[in-house]
Amino acid sequence: MGKGIVAASVGALLETRGLKVSLSKADPYINVDPGTMSPIQHGEVFVTVDGAETDLDLGHYERFTQAPLSRSNSFSAGKIYDDVLTKERKGVYLGVTVQVVPHITSQIKEYIYKAAEGCDIAILEVGGTVGDIESLPFLETIRQIRYELGSENVICIHVTLVPYIEAAKELKTKPTQHSVKELRSIGIQPDILVCRADRSVPEELRRKIALFCNVPPANVVEARDVDSIYKMPIIFHEQFLDQVIVDQLNIWTRKPDLKEWQLIRDRLSFPKKECKIAVVGKYTNVIDAYKSINESLIHAGISNECKVNVEYIDAIELNDQNIEATLGDCDGIIVPGGFGERGVEGKIKAIHFARTRKIPFLGICLGMQLAAIEFARHVIGLKEAQSFEFNPTSPHLIITLMESQTHITKMGGTMRLGAYPCVVQEKSKAMESYQRSHISERHRHRYEFNNSYREEFEKHGMIFSGVSPDGSLVEIMEMVDHPWFVACQFHPELQSKPMEAHPLFHKFIESACKDDQHK
Hints:
Number of helices: 18
Radius of gyration: 25 Å
Distance between the termini: 42 Å
Helix content: 25-40%
Largest sheet: 9 strands, mixed
Strand order of the largest sheet: 12-11-13-14-22-21-20-17-18
Strand content: 15-25%
Structural class: alpha/beta
């Protein structure tokens, strides 16, 4: 439906008025967090600075706003129930019967209020659909909060669908009416309706929705399909959404300063050049699995005034016979992170193609590990080079299990997670990108480069341009004799924004946009 984009856009608009915002996501599923969920089912796992594995909507919040996000800004039904049951086992509730109301709802409130500390506006997005049994405790909590704080301090924005029926050649308001009726039946009257549609919603239809759903016509806002989500803040502002919010909350703010968002919109609409980037992975049928990478490429396109055309290539299907036809016309190749052996050899072929054809390459997490394996096999000559993850008995484990991971039995939340410092080497492509020697980047992995092979790699033209402060962990490696071949152990895509492209993505696209450098 796009609730995450709506929440992020509202946060962005309120920030342009000088307000400090907080954004949180409540998910109704029973998993404690999405860390062990398949990307095919749930999209990518976003990682916060403090190492929380969260829903991908937190990525939208960070990209659209300056809100500092942590594990406090993401909580699931599973996490709430886990906390309540832990308290019950400890005797915190002093023997009373533990119930959804008030114990579950009170625990949800704790998270909501904690995330709101120090902010002018706290935005909470509830996942799922109105009427789902899983989301009822969250909606009941919202009803209670509105009752306790008053309608002048709480606004309910309902994102609803206005589908176009092709046979009738018209937009239909019935789903919206029924959704609002369902919401009102549990005690919540929405103040603002954001109507998702694949086209513009006519004024008369919005007035009809307002009448049947008991909201002022000015509070019915359309969210039509657009070619870029980064145009949504301005589209909402043009419908006075931010003004409606501050008026209803009776908040005085400055006039919104939309210069940055207008510049982003203009650069997206009128690029000066174009390039084609191949992302070679194994979740290519679910683009949300690589959501942050896709957005980071858009950001780098904005900063380079370039339209980036992204093509997702299934690594499993890549072989010696089709690789030229598949990747030959690409201006850059990315091999992203992932887990498991499926598609690994196809990714290695893509890396070999990028290295030998001098095509700009960016390897991320597993992409760096496979770049190291490809280099060891085809440049150093270690034909059996492998990762501990795929073949722990290989004589040449270029990638090995971290010492801290050797006794791990639980999968959830046990990897190297969150932000870690890195020291960048002078006179390297990494330094050209970052323009500073000390950086901090976010991680999500179990395996590391095997230091016993460092010297052999350096002899053959690979440099380690980013390492941990104590020098024990490889964070960035790059080839000397290549236009742009950089691979990193961390996930740079998690810190990119439309108004501030990540340095590695910016330089990668800058290199990809150079004419005929590899063709």
